[in-house]
Amino acid sequence: MKILVTGGAGFIGTNFIRYWLKKYPKSEIAVLDKLTYAGRRENLQDLLHRIQFIQGDICDKEVVSKAMTGCDRVFHFAAESHVDRSIENAGDFVRTNITGTYTLLEAAKEENIDRFIHISTDEVYGSTLTRSFSEADPLAPSSPYSATKAGSDLLALSYYTTHGLPVVVTRSSNNFGPYQYPEKMIPLMILNALENKPLPVYGDGKNVRDWLYVDDNCAGIDAVAEKGTCGEIYNLAAQNEFENLDIIRRILKILDRPENLITFIRDRPGHDRRYSLQTDKVAELGWKPKVTFEEGLQKTISWYCDHQEWWKPLRN
What we know:
Elements: E1 2-6, H1 11-23, E2 28-33, E3 52-55, H2 61-68, E4 73-76, H3 83-88, H4 90-111, E5 115-121, H5 144-163, E6 167-172, E7 174-176, H6 185-194, E8 199-202, E9 208-213, H7 214-227, E10 233-236, E11 241-243, H8 244-255, E12 262-265, H9 280-283, H10 293-306, H11 308-315
Helix pairs in contact: 1-7, 2-4, 4-5, 6-8, 6-10
């Protein structure tokens, strides 16, 4: 089997490639990545002899067509994903997340791809204070980022309905783990704590997220690719719901740093209060997370402590 992984030099894509090669060592992998600020070729340096790496834009029809030639499956991770950046400049998000997805879907249709796995986010459902979202719930995105992801989800699913393209969609809760770019909350707090810098917290810090260790997400995506029904959506989450302040205090405790490093800053516009997903549907495929939050957080902190050569150039 040969697969195409878009955004394979990013956080989840990098971890997925490592997961895939460990589980399916004889598989061929083509990686298409534009290498924007959050995509780093260095993430895959030790694997370049085992993959076909293509630097290119998913909006470029010719590049996409060449990358997809001979592939059986497409795992579409490539996306602009940082909410703050989408508030400042939504245009990049519209182009990459919607136009890029369209370009890939068109190529997949021409190539007769066996399965197109579209990777999305719990943020497309919007905020909920009391319940957990199922795959059947309406979408209510709050930011330009989540709105463009919702649009790409619907576009991908329309290609199943209209063209019979074998699409499945995964929507995961917040991922954490190695190789995550330092602008995201958990690595930012780890690195600021390591350097004894203030840890910026939006608003009152009581926003709730459900945290999923990245390896578990990779296994869930694999399960959906193997056993999921085409045209369907599958939520992936671990029911590890914590307030942001709780996460930050856990990080400070593990690193033996004082809580007075916590610094409250003005909340960002449209900041969703709580995300929460039902996962009964994916559980029927035999998937459940294996890594506890405590174990995953310790592994993540240890990785950043042990890989200063990876993050220090980014901080500088």
